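User: I've been trying to design a sequence by hand for this structure and keep getting stuck. Would you show me what you'd pick, starting by listing the structure so we're on the same page?

Assistant: Good idea, let's start from the same input. This is the structure you sent:
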């Protein structure tokens, strides 16, 4: 009986993994320019980390986490998101003692037991950044500019950053009271989940995906109407700094994000081609989270993007495809195979991309394979070539052999130079 993958967990095959690598490399290059350093986090954490940080009333904690008992009875959870794990590492290793501001990024798999759909899986990868140690509006703007530049570098189709402010401990109670009063007046039409959350966390009402709930809360009060003066000044400064760089996020006053630790600046990214669930990622400020998890009272802000969603949303560039071999070596006969293996090992050691066929294939079969992998040249090595100590070169675009052979003793640099000097066909290679 054939064993298949688990529902919501999928394989990233070679054709697709090239796009993943390109996305990750674009992110790494940009993060380096913004002076963010990589941190690698464990996949498994103590369950308490997420219940305390994400919030017990969130869908993630209530319904989606993969939680299990370890052999010693400890409750462990496959990480459903990266910020809590990063903050745990920040606190545990006292990173605040090493630098006043920590600018970190991470890449890796997350796990949530959601209903699988287009670009949403139960194991999914995220790319995230966190800046810890600054509470000023300028760092919020810097993180949003980084996000904007990353979306531009990836050429995400129809990318739009949506922005809101969730207020702070000073102004949120008044907003919470207004929203609670509104919820009580509409309790009869709220879904079961929202009915339970009214008392515990009424902000979750605006995050509900139930259509009837969304319609019933369409006129609910929003956070921007209740911001205190410091929060309003902070939000206006963020927007002004972005506008100076010609970056103008769309205001979305209903956005509350799906995690309880956010305050003040909050944002999401939506894109085209993803269907009704068009979010690519998001983030925001979480000034109280580090103290909540036992660390210093350090502010922080960050974001995360889903790689599977990005793969669907990027305008696929040539760079996102696997690089073809520079040459394809076609040996004919056992003696030629041994010599070809020696040559390719040497060339690969010098950084050249080389493919080699083996197993007694016919020359015709090897040519088809070379054409399939997109190699521009085939180096043929048979009995005649061994006797002459030279390789026959075939142009895979023009489908003809060059009269000039390349010596078996040629260095990698000499091989590349010789290939560069060969006359090229005017026929364009196939896409």
């Amino acid at each position: 009986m054939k064993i298949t993958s688990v529902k919501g967990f999928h394989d990233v095959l070679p054709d697709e993994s090239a796009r993943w690598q390109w996305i990750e490399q674009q992110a790494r290059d940009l993060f380096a320019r913004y002076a963010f350093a990589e941190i690698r986090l464990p996949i498994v954490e103590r369950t308490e980390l997420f219940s305390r940080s994400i919030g017990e009333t969130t869908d993630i904690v209530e319904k989606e986490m993969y939680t299990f008992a370890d052999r010693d009875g400890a409750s462990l959870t496959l990480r459903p998101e990266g910020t809590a794990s990063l903050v745990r590492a920040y606190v545990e290793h006292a990173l605040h003692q090493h630098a006043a501001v920590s600018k970190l990024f991470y890449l890796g798999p997350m796990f949530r037991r959601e209903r699988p759909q287009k670009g949403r899986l139960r194991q999914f990868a995220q790319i995230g950044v966190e800046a810890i140690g600054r509470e000023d509006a300028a760092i919020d703007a810097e993180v949003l500019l980084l996000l904007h530049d990353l979306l531009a570098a990836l050429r995400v189709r129809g990318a739009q950053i949506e922005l809101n402010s969730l207020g702070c401990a000073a102004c949120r109670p008044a907003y919470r009271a207004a929203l609670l009063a509104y919820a009580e007046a509409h309790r009869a039409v709220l879904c079961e989940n929202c009915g339970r959350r009214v008392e515990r966390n009424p902000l979750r009402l605006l995050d509900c995906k139930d259509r009837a709930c969304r319609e019933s809360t369409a006129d609910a009060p929003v956070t921007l109407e209740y911001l205190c003066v410091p929060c309003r000044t902070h939000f206006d400064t963020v927007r002004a700094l972005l506008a100076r760089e010609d970056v103008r996020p769309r205001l979305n006053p209903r956005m509350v994000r799906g995690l309880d630790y956010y305050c003040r600046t909050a944002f999401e990214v939506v894109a085209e081609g993803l269907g009704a669930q068009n979010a690519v990622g998001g983030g925001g400020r979480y000034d109280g989270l580090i103290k909540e998890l036992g660390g210093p009272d350090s502010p922080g802000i960050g974001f995360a993007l889903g790689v599977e969603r990005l793969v669907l949303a990027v305008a696929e560039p040539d760079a996102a495809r696997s690089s073809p071999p520079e040459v394809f070596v076609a040996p004919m006969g056992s003696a030629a195979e041994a010599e070809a293996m020696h040559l390719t090992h040497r060339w690969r050691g010098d950084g050249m991309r080389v493919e080699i066929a083996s197993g007694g294939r016919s020359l015709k079969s090897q040519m088809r394979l070379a054409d399939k992998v997109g190699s521009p040249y085939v180096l043929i090595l048979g009995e005649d070539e061994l006797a002459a100590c030279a390789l026959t070169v075939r142009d895979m675009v023009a489908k003809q052999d060059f009269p000039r052979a390349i010596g078996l003793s040629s260095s990698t640099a000499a091989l590349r130079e010789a290939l560069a000097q060969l006359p090229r066909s005017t026929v364009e290679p196939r896409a």
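That's my pick for every position. To get oriented when you compare it with your attempt: DSSP finds 15 helices and 17 strands in the chain. Residues 287 and 299 are 4 Å apart (CA to CA).
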